[in-house]
């Protein structure tokens, strides 16, 4: 049997020619095709091979038991509408069949064409609605399957993205910072989080940490956090640092202070954060382990805890989060600390974690956990806080990103004296390798390294040029030893010895070459010794360069009176050696204190040369350019005499006391 689409097929089970003719006339006006069967058996055979939309069955027992057939057909063709043609004698049975859904429509006999027509139209409409509903259901299911597939694909891509983020951009906790024990954890509320922390090591003397929280969650917040971290890293760890001598220590990298660093980062990201409608709360801290000092900038962050002994202090400032206000200046705060102190950074995902009754974990519970675990390692403290929060939340996933960083200052290992040696051929082509060796061996102090490279370069050249190293034993051995107070270098050669006392001083008038190399060596080194070798022995030239300590440097102290910055010079000399650093530090204080009116207290200063006077003039010009002024107080007699010799007392306002100088700004 050729199959016909069941969507437009009517099966008529009937042994009456008039009934069949009436149905046929009705269907002529539709797109339905007609199938006929003269008995239920024949109809069952048709349904076994063909689905239909409508079944019309004439109740004509005993030949056709329509009720029994329609019941059987429902099992075979459940979607079809079933119309029964029957007399009123079968009304009770009809009611049961309708309830059982064996019969959809009833047309009474004797047959009226209008009623039959009406029943077929209702059946047709019902079938079309059912067909439409089925099509819609199928479409919905198809779209649901597609959405489920897309969702699964998105989850997979998000997982891959989170893995990439963790590997390339995620937080890395350093484990090789001498003097610090550090542990950290971050638990995102979604696959990727908006919390971040980053460690920077801009120089060997400091360690920085940025601890931030981006408004929002998930991938957008994580991307904003990564962008801010990149800007912070750009300013925290520049490609190359200049060097300056810190008055509180030795030569150091001249890196940006935390407040300046944040200011520059703010200028780079503020417009972008405004456009994206994001802001970032941030705490940026810098550890100075040699001075046991912490400087920090708080930009609306959760407040880290400083635990010293059994006392807990909150580290807090008064700055807005990044991206919240356009015109802002960042305030720097400083504290001191001791070995063994703990610093705990935490996000609001810790204190704002909720239990099933919506109670907050809170800072009090956090403090209890810390107090209970004070003697433990940072890693154990992090684990204890995390466990306490999870237990409090009854195992529920975090509603906000959760991050914890614990830093403990510990005793640095004892310094060991390490000696490095290298052997070089007696040839000027060895100079680049020689300088690289000195640089690698003197990394403890880059400023000294640069000077020693120059000194050893000159010594090596003199040995090659004048040592007459023509025999086989012509190697030059250079040994470097880093001591507690400086660097010692020994240069051993088998050349012709010399008497350093016979080396003439250089002629600075330019009428004779020579002598400049050893002159530079003596001025660079704090001590130079020479021992000529005997028969079969090497000559040894030794030099020692001492680390510059705070006693050797000019110390400035300062305070403010209203809008006037008072700077006191605690050293006795301001000469060419100290003048550049003096000017730089005073101008740094002017910038950090936002004050363009300055009083210089020179009560301890006993000597000033032309370079020192020039630094004062530079400071005066800078302040005048910025609508400020410089006034000098408590000038000693020797310094005043120098001012008068060059008539600079007419350029500066000089007062007998600091109070007089301050009162002059009030007029």
List keywords for this structure.
667 residues, alpha/beta, Rossmann fold, Phosphatase 2c, domain 1, Heat Shock Protein 90, 4 domains, five-stranded antiparallel β-sheet, 29 strands, 38% helix
Radius of gyration: 46 Å
| Percent of residues in β-strands | 15-25%
How many structural domains does the protein architecture include?
4
Structural class per helix/strand content? alpha/beta
Q: What is the CATH C level class of the largest domain, in words? A: Alpha Beta
Strand order of the largest sheet: 2-1-3-4-5
CATH topology call of the largest domain: Phosphatase 2c, domain 1
Number of helices: 17
Outline: elongated
Indicate the CATH architecture of the largest domain: 4-Layer Sandwich
Count of DSSP strands: 29
Return the average pLDDT rounded to an integer.
Answer: 81
Spatial gap, N to C terminus? 117 Å
Report the uncertain regions: 1-6, 239-252
Largest sheet: 5 strands, parallel
User: What do we call the CATH homologous superfamily of the largest domain?
Assistant: PPM-type phosphatase domain
Any overview of this molecule?
This protein has about 675 residues and is α/β, with parallel strands linked by helices. Helices cover about 40% and strands about 25% of the residues. The strands form 7 sheets. A 5-stranded parallel beta sheet has the order 2-1-3-4-5, with helices on both faces. Strands 6-17-16-13-14 form a 5-stranded antiparallel beta sheet. Helix 3 links the parallel strand 3 and strand 4 (about 80-85). Helix 6 (about 220-235) runs antiparallel to helix 7 (about 260-275), helix 11 packs antiparallel against helix 12 and helix 12 (about 445-465) packs antiparallel against helix 13. The termini are far apart. Residues about 1-5 and about 240-250 have low confidence and may be disordered.
């Amino acid at each position: 049997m050729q199959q016909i689409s069941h969507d437009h097929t009517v099966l008529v089970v009937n042994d009456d020619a008039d009934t069949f003719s009436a149905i046929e006339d009705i269907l002529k006006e539709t797109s339905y095709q007609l199938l006929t069967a003269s008995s239920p058996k024949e109809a069952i055979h048709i349904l076994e091979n063909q689905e239909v939309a409508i079944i019309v069955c004439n109740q004509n027992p005993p030949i056709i038991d329509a009720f029994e057939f329609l019941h059987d057909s429902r099992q075979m063709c459940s979607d079809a509408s079933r119309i029964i043609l029957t007399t009123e004698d079968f009304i009770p049975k009809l009611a049961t069949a309708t309830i059982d859904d064996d019969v959809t429509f009833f047309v009474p006999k004797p047959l009226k064409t209008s009623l039959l027509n009406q029943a077929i139209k209702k059946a047709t409409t019902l079938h079309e609605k059912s067909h439409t509903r089925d099509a819609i259901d199928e479409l919905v299911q198809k779209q649901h399957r597609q959405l489920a597939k897309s969702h699964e694909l998105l989850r997979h891509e998000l997982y891959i993205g989170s893995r990439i983020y963790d590997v390339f951009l995620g937080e890395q906790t350093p484990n090789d910072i001498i003097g610090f024990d550090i542990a950290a954890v971050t638990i995102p509320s979604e696959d990727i989080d908006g919390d971040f922390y980053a460690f920077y090591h801009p120089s060997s003397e400091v360690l920085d940490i940025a601890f931030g929280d981006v408004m929002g969650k998930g991938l957008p917040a994580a991307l904003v956090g990564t962008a801010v971290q990149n800007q912070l890293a750009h300013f925290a760890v520049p490609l190359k640092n200049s060097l300056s001598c810190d008055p509180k220590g030795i030569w150091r990298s001249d890196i940006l202070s935390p407040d300046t660093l944040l200011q520059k980062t703010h200028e780079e990201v503020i417009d972008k954060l405004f456009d994206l409608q994001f802001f970032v709360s941030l705490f940026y801290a810098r550890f100075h382990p040699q001075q046991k000092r912490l400087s920090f900038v708080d930009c609306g962050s959760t407040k880290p805890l400083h635990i010293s002994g059994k006392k807990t202090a909150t580290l807090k400032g008064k700055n807005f989060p990044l991206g919240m206000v356009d015109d802002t200046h960042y305030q720097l705060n400083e504290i001191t600390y001791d070995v063994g102190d703990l610093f705990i950074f935490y996000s609001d995902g810790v204190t704002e974690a909720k239990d099933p009754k919506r109670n907050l974990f809170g800072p009090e519970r956090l403090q209890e956990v810390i107090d209970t675990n004070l003697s433990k390692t940072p890693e154990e403290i992090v684990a204890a806080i995390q466990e306490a929060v999870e237990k409090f939340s009854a195992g529920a996933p975090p509603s906000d990103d959760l991050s914890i960083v614990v830093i403990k200052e510990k005793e640095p290992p004892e310094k060991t004296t390490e000696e490095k040696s290298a052997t070089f051929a007696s040839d000027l082509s060895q100079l680049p390798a020689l300088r690289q060796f000195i640089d690698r061996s003197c990394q403890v102090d880059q400023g000294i390294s640069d000077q020693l490279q120059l000194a050893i370069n000159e010594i090596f050249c003199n040995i090659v040029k004048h040592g007459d190293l023509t025999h086989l034993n012509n190697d030059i051995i250079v040994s470097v030893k880093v001591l507690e107070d400086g660097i010692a270098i020994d240069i051993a050669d088998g050349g012709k010895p010399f008497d350093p006392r016979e080396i003439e001083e250089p002629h600075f008038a330019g009428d004779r070459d020579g002598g400049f190399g050893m002159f530079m060596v003596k001025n660079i080194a704090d001590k130079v010794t020479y021992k000529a070798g005997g028969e079969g022995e090497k000559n040894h030239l030794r030099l020692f360069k001492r680390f510059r300590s705070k006693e050797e440097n000019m110390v400035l102290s300062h305070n403010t009176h209203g809008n006037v910055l008072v700077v006191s010079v605690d050293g006795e000399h301001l000469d060419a050696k100290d003048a550049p650093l003096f000017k730089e530090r005073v101008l740094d204080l002017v910038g950090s204190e936002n004050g363009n009116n300055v009083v210089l207290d020179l009560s301890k200063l006993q000597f000033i040369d032309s370079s020192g006077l020039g630094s004062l003039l530079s400071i005066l010009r800078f302040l005048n350019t910025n609508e400020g002024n410089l006034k000098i107080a408590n000038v000693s007699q020797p310094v005043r005499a120098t001012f008068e010799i060059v008539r600079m007392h007419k350029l500066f306002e000089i007062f007998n006391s600091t109070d007089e100088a301050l009162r002059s700004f009030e007029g």
